[in-house]
Design goal:
This protein has 10 helices and 15 strands. With 340 residues, the chain is of the alpha/beta class. It has 2 domains: 4-77 and 105-175, Alpha-Beta Complex (DHBP synthase), CATH 3.90.870.10; 245-337, Rossmann fold (3-Layer(aba) Sandwich). The strands form 2 sheets. It has an 11-stranded mixed beta sheet with strand order 1-8-2-3-7-4-6-5-9-10-11, with helices on both faces. Strands 12-15-13-14 form a 4-stranded parallel beta sheet, covered by helices on one side. α1 (14-25) crosses α6. Bound molecules: threonylcarbamoyladenylate (TXA) and magnesium ion. Residues 34, 36-37, 39, 63-66, 100, 102, 104, 116, 119, 121-123, 145-147, 184-185, 187, 202, 230-234 line the site of threonylcarbamoyladenylate. Its main location: cytoplasm. L-threonine binds at residues 36, 68, 121, 125, 145, 185. Belongs to the SUA5 family.
């Protein structure tokens, strides 16, 4: 079956919005741009539509989806905010919504169990992307949308990347160009604490630990196991290219095998960093060429991983980035992508 791409132009997104809404209303699935990565959307209240998302992605049904609302008042349709954390939730929402922050909250009965994989909680966010918001508002219902890649693979940050992942499996991709952030949203769960609320980061993302510290004590959860699925998507191996991706603490730890083609996923192609001169790389791709800016690196990460994955290499060697600010989310994705 054919997958169409429809452009949502800056000055005219009406046709794209109309087509996407018609499909969603009919219980179909559509790839949609968000400010983080492209999502594969379905009407969150329609379990048959949600089932199509799992099928297209080949996603195991124990990995729940994020529900996207388009008005703050829609929150009560999907989630219940416990009174003990209400103030913190309110502050976080007013600081970051619409935007790349996802809250895990108790779900309402309207959310099908399939969306949450049978868990009593739902992950909710409000996307800041104008096209996504336009579609959500016109639909008037929340949209369940995981990233628009096949399960365990690299998240798409452009319509062409979605096409490579899901072409032939979905009817429509709404193309609004490259994603602004390039990394999936920060996912948190809030608990009341003794002095301050406790914010558990289940997945690091564009909203950083430092920013969240203004709202409570922040605990960044360590890797989760497959069978302890509080954040079931946080499977040890995720966002993975097909080519093995290796990461070493120090450049000296890398011992290339003779005759193999290696590509370097470099941070800024810094000759002093040691990786560049370590080896005759078949390909070098930099996340933030020259300048070494974490924001630029985040935006380019999945694109660069995809380019290297398509270069016919024996392995990709990723240079670690500093784990400050956005670097924490970048390193989280690199570790999950890397081969044990
Ligand atoms: O930026 C994003 O969050 C993108 C865009 C499309 O919004 N979406 C996204 O969805 O990254 P996905 O499905 O690829 O990742 C959602 C993550 C999964 O790791 C899942 O396990 C976790 O959210 N999650 C969903 N519901 C949860 C819940 N009730 N409790 C804990 N984790 C949950
Ligand atoms: Mg994903």
């Amino acid at each position: 079956d054919e997958t169409r791409i429809i452009q949502a132009e800056d000055d005219d997104m009406k046709d794209a919005v109309r087509e996407a809404v018609a499909l969603l209303e009919g219980g179909d699935i559509v790839a949609l741009p968000t400010e983080t990565v492209y999502g594969l959307g379905a009407d969150a209240f329609n379990p048959e539509a949600v089932a199509k998302v799992f099928e297209a992605k080949e996603r195991p049904s124990f990995d729940p989806l994020i529900v996207h609302i388009s008005h703050a008042r829609q929150l009560e349709e999907v989630a219940v905010v416990p009174p003990e954390i209400e103030e913190t939730v309110r502050k976080l929402i007013s600081a970051y919504w619409p935007g790349p922050l996802t809250l895990v909250l108790p779900k309402t009965d309207r959310i099908p169990d399939l969306v949450t994989s049978g868990q009593p909680t739902v992950a909710v966010r409000q996307s800041a992307h104008r096209v996504f918001r336009g579609i959500g508002k016109q639909l008037g219902r929340p949209i369940a949308a995981p990233s628009a890649n096949r399960f365990g693979r690299i998240s798409p940050t452009s319509a062409s990347a979605v096409m490579k992942e899901l072409g032939g499996r979905i009817p429509l991709i709404v193309d609004a160009g490259a994603c602004r952030d390039g990394l999936e949203s920060t996912i948190i769960r809030i608990e009341p604490g003794e002095k301050k609320p406790v914010i558990h980061v289940l997945r690091p993302g564009p909203v950083t630990k430092k920013e969240l510290q203004n709202f409570g004590r922040v605990i960044v959860e360590k890797k989760r196991l497959i069978d302890a699925p509080e954040a079931p998507g946080q499977l040890a191996s995720h966002y993975a290219p097909r080519t093995p991706l290796l990461m070493f603490e120090r450049p000296d730890d890398f011992h290339p095998e003779a005759g193999k083609r290696y590509g370097l996923l470099s941070y800024k192609e810094d000759p002093k960093a040691g990786y560049l001169h370590r080896h005759e790389w078949a390909v070098v791709e930099a996340l933030s060429p020259g300048s070494g800016k974490l924001a630029e690196a985040a935006v380019r990460l999945f694109h660069v991983m995809r380019v290297l994955d398509e270069a016919g290499l024996d392995a990709i060697v990723a240079e670690p980035v500093s784990e400050t600010g956005l670097g924490q989310a970048i390193m989280d994705r690199l570790r999950r992508a890397s081969t044990p």
